[in-house]
Specification:
binds adenosine-5'-diphosphate, alpha+beta, 7 strands, two-stranded antiparallel ribbon, 19% strand
Amino acid sequence: KETQVMLTDFIANASHELKTPLTSFIGFIETIENDQNLTSDQKEFIKIMKNQSERMKKLTSDLLILTTAHASTSKDNFEALDITLLLESAINSVHATATDKKINYKTEIEPNLPKIIGNKDEVIRVIENLLSNAFKYSFDNGEVLVKIFVTNNSKHLFKKFDDNKNLLCLSIIDKGEGIDETLIPRLTERFFRVDKARSRKVGGSGLGLSIVKQILDNHNAQLQIKSKLGEGSSFNVFFEAA
Ligand code: ADP
């Protein structure tokens, strides 16, 4: 346990220490990128520097989030949550990617949904990660559908759920490139990416789904991934209704 605490502290401190120089890099890059006297080569180099620094910033911040989620088993900040409001908040933070790629996204939300019990910020983070993946790995002009509904059809698949409680399912469906079925069990491993170059290009860290899994484990919730290469994917999250 002591080693685990040391490791968590080390990663937390390292990511925190890296944040300051990175913020400074990015600030200065943004100052010089607008210089009218830059040659086209210089403009290109600065663009690469900016992308790579942003990537590094995302990596350090995701590492910190993952470590914190891993270390937190307490239910101190748990409260009754309206998942529809959390979805709205997540959409607000990631919709820019959808707009850039002209992705048409729709929501289908069942009325009178029960609440779930959880940590608000963590559940928002789960939805943000899954939504931003659906947008990142969709083609331009693609379609993404988000559904929230009560279901008990999948309960028998997972032993962790209480027989007497309903399940609430958040389902994020895209028609992107899909994932080879044999790789699905590996997606929640840290730094696992199906196509490293593609993930880097779209600003991925390879940590998003491990963060999702860790947070859902803390919530006694379950991630189910279904995908077909060339057809698209659906990422379903099951929470016990309060
Ligand atoms: P990343 O930061 O690389 O997106 P994630 O942990 O969120 O990392 O996802 C791991 C990998 O799973 C991604 O690199 C990508 O290959 C694959 N992936 C995740 N979501 C999708 C999706 N909706 N469609 C296709 N591939 C996906």
